[in-house]
Known about the structure:
Blueprint: E1 2-4, E2 7-9, H1 11-17, E3 26-31, E4 41-46, E5 51-56, E6 62-68, E7 71-72, E8 103-106, E9 115-117, E10 120-122, E11 134-143, E12 146-158, E13 164-174, E14 179-188, E15 194-196, E16 199-205, E17 214-217, E18 219-224, H2 227-230, E19 249-255, E20 262-269, E21 274-281, E22 287-294, E23 299-306, H3 313-319, E24 323-325, E25 330-341, H4 343-352
Antiparallel strand pairs: 1-2, 3-4, 4-5, 5-6, 6-7, 8-16, 9-10, 11-12, 12-13, 13-14, 14-25, 15-24, 16-23, 17-20, 18-19, 19-22, 20-21, 21-25, 22-23
Amino acid sequence: xxxxxxxxxxxxxxxxxxxxxxxxxxxxxxxxxxxxxxxxxxxxxxxxxxxxxxxxxxxxxxxxxxxxxxxxxxxxxxxxxxxxxxxxxxxxxxxxxxxxxxxxxxxxxxxxxxxxxxxxxxxxxxxxxxxxxxxxxxxxxxxxxxxxxxxxxxxxxxxxxxxxxxxxxxxxxxxxxxxxxxxxxxxxxxxxxxxxxxxxxxxxxxxxxxxxxxxxxxxxxxxxxxxxxxxxxxxxxxxxxxxxxxxxxxxxxxxxxxxxxxxxxxxxxxxxxxxxxxxxxxxxxxxxxxxxxxxxxxxxxxxxxxxxxxxxxxxxxxxxxxxxxxxxxxxxxxxxxxxxxxxxxxxxxxxxxxxx
Length: 356
């Protein structure tokens, strides 16, 4: 059964009440038409619970604009959903086309800071977010009285005589439910061993992010990335309003998994009575990065499950933590982003996952 607008409905009852499912929920494809966003394909998804989000099909199937019952969830940069034709792969050029949004993918052979690794110049955060998806499809699939919306596509990272990685992504949500699930599979289609670096760059913003909001997690250790972050280690999870002249701080958290092997993080806003949770399988994503950028204009809190830190591929190689995929090998990733409404729901999530 699906719960819509306070009613439990079977498929039969819903069919009697609407002319088409899109009346209450579904996926619609569209194309942006202005400026640097021109010709970017978008999938607009509504679940019927109040959750609405967009998927940028030409930007690695990133999650873009998102809201819950009219409340924005994600920070957005002035750039918007920049067409990949404007991508600058050099140095920090990635920032010129970084839209923010609910989730920006970083990877696949490189993520994190720009660097030179074994003679190869690598721009910040890799190419994934600036690569169009192919073989895109979507469907509303009924399983008994439950309806699932599934959006699928593939993204390739290839270079002559170098790497050939294929990302197969399925984005799934359910009628009447406020959770987005990403099922990713990365396959090495090439003939050589390839580095694998993945960061799921989740960007929460105002009004969900606000003074008095709480970042709750189960960390055994928190490490500052650099001297600037070290200044804020004691207040890493304390959130304020926008601060003039604030400089970004990045923290690396070692999380304890739950009984199913998942990491769990919650941004709770008691004033709005909603929280955004992130759940990810730590077997493939053992790292969790917090990007705290609570400055004026750039007022964003990044929640970033990853299989690496953010200092670039050369640092991962030097530490001996750089992951690889052999030819024909595949790696699966599981990630959920969901909304909790009301004090009781947030407290239950906090207690179940031992968050502090």
